[in-house]
Structures are given as C-alpha cells and as structure tokens.
C-alpha cells in the first residue's frame, strides 16, 4: 500500500456554480473525457500559456544586434498572401469559393 508520503497526486478542490459544472461536463463528454481529466488538462494548458508568456529569452549583445538587423530588413511580399489579399471577401461582390 502507498503511504501518504509516497503519493504523487495532489487533490484540488473548488466550488463551482451548477451552470459551470454543467458546461464542463458537456465539454468533457464531447471530448470523451472525465470531468477530472478535462479540468486538469484545461488548467495545465492555461498554466503553461501563462508561464510561456513570462519566458525570458537571453542572447548575447552580438546575437541581439543580428536579431534587430533581421527585423529592420525590408519585407519581401509572399505571392500567395498577395493573391489571397486581392481576392474579394465572401461578403463582397465578385466572390467565388474557387479562388
């Protein structure tokens, strides 16, 4: 039997309004997951996003100068993007779904 000191899982308890639980259960069901798995995955994903937003990028002053030089270069048009941006939008006259 595992002693409490050896246990790797840590319980988290929270109080939620019934509407929130219903929404979580619905979404978990659509994913084929349990409520616990769904909430754990969503919480970990949100935590990773926050941590990644705070990530510090370190580089040498030479590397930073090279990085800034690349950003300062004139841009070159991407033919596919130019073509797509010239197409009429779906709500504009002349739109066709064929491109």
TrEMBL record:
Keyword vocabulary terms for this entry: DNA-binding, Repressor, Toxin-antitoxin system, Transcription, Transcription regulation
One protein family per Pfam: TacA1
Domain of life, per lineage: Bacteria
Keyword ATP-binding: no
Similarity-based family: Belongs to the TacA antitoxin family.
Protein name: DUF1778 domain-containing protein
Organism per entry: Roseinatronobacter domitianus
């Amino acid at each position: 039997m595992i002693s409490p000191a050896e246990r790797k899982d840590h319980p988290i308890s929270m109080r939620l309004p019934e509407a929130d639980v219903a929404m979580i259960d619905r979404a978990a069901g659509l994913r084929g997951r349990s409520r616990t798995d769904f909430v754990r995955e969503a919480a970990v994903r949100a935590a990773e996003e926050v941590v990644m937003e705070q990530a510090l990028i370190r580089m040498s002053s030479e590397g930073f100068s090279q990085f800034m030089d690349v950003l300062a270069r004139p841009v070159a048009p991407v033919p596919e993007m130019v073509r797509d941006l010239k197409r009429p939008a779906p709500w504009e006259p002349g739109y066709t779904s064929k491109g």
